[in-house]
Amino acid sequence: MSLWEYANPVKFIRTTDRVLPWLAWLSAVCLAVGLIWGFFFTPDDFRQGSTVKIIYLHVPSALMAINGWLMMLVASLIWIVRRHHVSALAARAAAPVGATMTVIALATGAIWGQPMWGTYWAWDPRLTSFLILFLFYLGYMALWAAIENDDTAADLTSILCLVGSVFALLSRYAVNFWNQGLHQGASLSLDKEKNVADVFYFPLLVSIAGFVLLFIALVFLRTQTEIRARRMRALLARERMA
Amino acid sequence: MRALIARDLALAVRAGGGFGLGLAFFLIVVTLIPFGVGPETTLLTEIAPGILWIGALLACLLSLDRVFALDWEDGSLDLLATAPLPMEGIVTIKALAHWLTTGLPLVLAAPALGLLLSLPAPGYLWLFLSLLIGTPALSVIGTFGAALTVGLKRGGLLLSLLVLPLYVPTLIFGAEVARRGADGLAVETPLLMLAGLSFGTLALLPFASAAVLRVNLR
């Protein structure tokens, strides 16, 4: 029994089929609890008023936008090294989900920024590097869509993902150098004594869990779709040959 | 190796090679800016380093699809791939040829165009230097993008979408050097970062480009 057994598409689909309803329901419950708790049962912040509540969407989506790219990076590496098709398809499946998370993070940030900073957009390092991350997602998806041969597309996009990761990191620190930020520091971290106050902290954790589960469920679902679409194409091709 | 670079340079310089196109494009972009933002000298002085950098970057981008496309069409890329020269070497030579035919003329022309945008006097040296150090990175990164999209029918637009985000760090440091130079501030840190970026991409990215090209030639 090893992880690599799931590189078999049949095994992958059978297992994820069994897990998927659980994941989906758990994510729905977490999101419902986290968001409703966060929106209606936490006090308004004493300076930010009720706008503080956007944190329950903003922080988890931003987290998943970055981790989505990381997951694609790992999946691409697995494809390059071990050439498991499921891995390449999982990377492909994750890209639109990650891009959506990036948009959610940018949009909620802008909506919060208008009353708080007095502007929807500022060329702040964090904002800028997120915009660049979004562009990387777009380029990655466009490259997948543009190439007809599946294996070539998988190879090229995985190399793009590796190179893109390095450049995304570089940009992250380059913009840091270029402009000092408006964005506050991390509101959550494991090694810090003091995070945001507990009233905000616990619903935030629940909604982060909801976003993580949602991301995993969507990636599983989309990977299944990709596998089935590829099978269908193979069947059609075989039929045309016969 | 020397033969390959001589061949690429000859192809670019002779008729139909599009040698001067990037340069002409650079000139046009710089000419258009005052029409867009108005001719006030103070404003132009302020934005000149950034405009010149963006102009050079776009001119560089415009000529990228020619790096491999012609060789791909007539099959000489396949011949090159079977030659004893390793693929990494071919890619590096291609990037070098692109830089010599596009980047270097841009670097030499930039101070003259700075005159049009009334760049302040201390800025010329730093603009020239930052472009001289930064444009090789643009060529190397661009060659990677060109290798990615070589097999595609209409790869041009996709090429820009892929390459432009990769250009961001180079642009930031390059424009920062030019701007600080123009304002008479210390330029050391961004200049060193820019040089590091150039050498780093030059050392590492040809491996990625070669891998990509091998996949495309499969």
UniProtKB/TrEMBL annotation, chain A:
Annotated Gene Ontology cellular component terms: plasma membrane
One MF term in the entry's GO annotations: heme transmembrane transporter activity
Superkingdom, taxonomy of origin: Bacteria
Domain Cytochrome c assembly protein: 4-183
Keyword tRNA processing: no
Keywords: Cell inner membrane, Cell membrane, Cytochrome c-type biogenesis, Membrane, Transmembrane, Transmembrane helix, Transport
Entry's transmembrane regions: 20-41, 61-81, 93-115, 127-147, 159-179, 199-221
Gene Ontology biological-process annotations: cytochrome complex assembly
Cleaved signal peptide residues: none
Major subcellular site: membrane
Subcellular location: Cell inner membrane; Membrane
Membrane topology qualifier: Multi-pass membrane protein
Family: Belongs to the CcmC/CycZ/HelC family.
Function: Required for the export of heme to the periplasm for the biogenesis of c-type cytochromes.
Protein name as it appears in the record: Heme exporter protein C
Underlying gene: ccmC
TrEMBL record, chain B:
MF-aspect GO terms: heme transmembrane transporter activity
One Pfam family, short name: CcmB
Bilayer-crossing regions: 12-35, 47-64, 96-119, 125-150, 157-178, 190-213
InterPro entries per UniProt: Cyt_c_biogenesis_CcmB, Cyt_c_CcmB_bac
Gene Ontology cellular-component annotations: plasma membrane
Example GO biological process: cytochrome c biosynthetic process
Membrane topology note: Multi-pass membrane protein
Subcellular location: Cell inner membrane
Source organism, top-level taxon: Bacteria
Predominant location: membrane
Keyword entries, A-Z: Cell inner membrane, Cell membrane, Cytochrome c-type biogenesis, Membrane, Transmembrane, Transmembrane helix, Transport
Functional note: Required for the export of heme to the periplasm for the biogenesis of c-type cytochromes.
Similarity field: Belongs to the CcmB/CycW/HelB family.
Matching NCBIfam families: ccmB
Record-given protein name: Heme exporter protein B
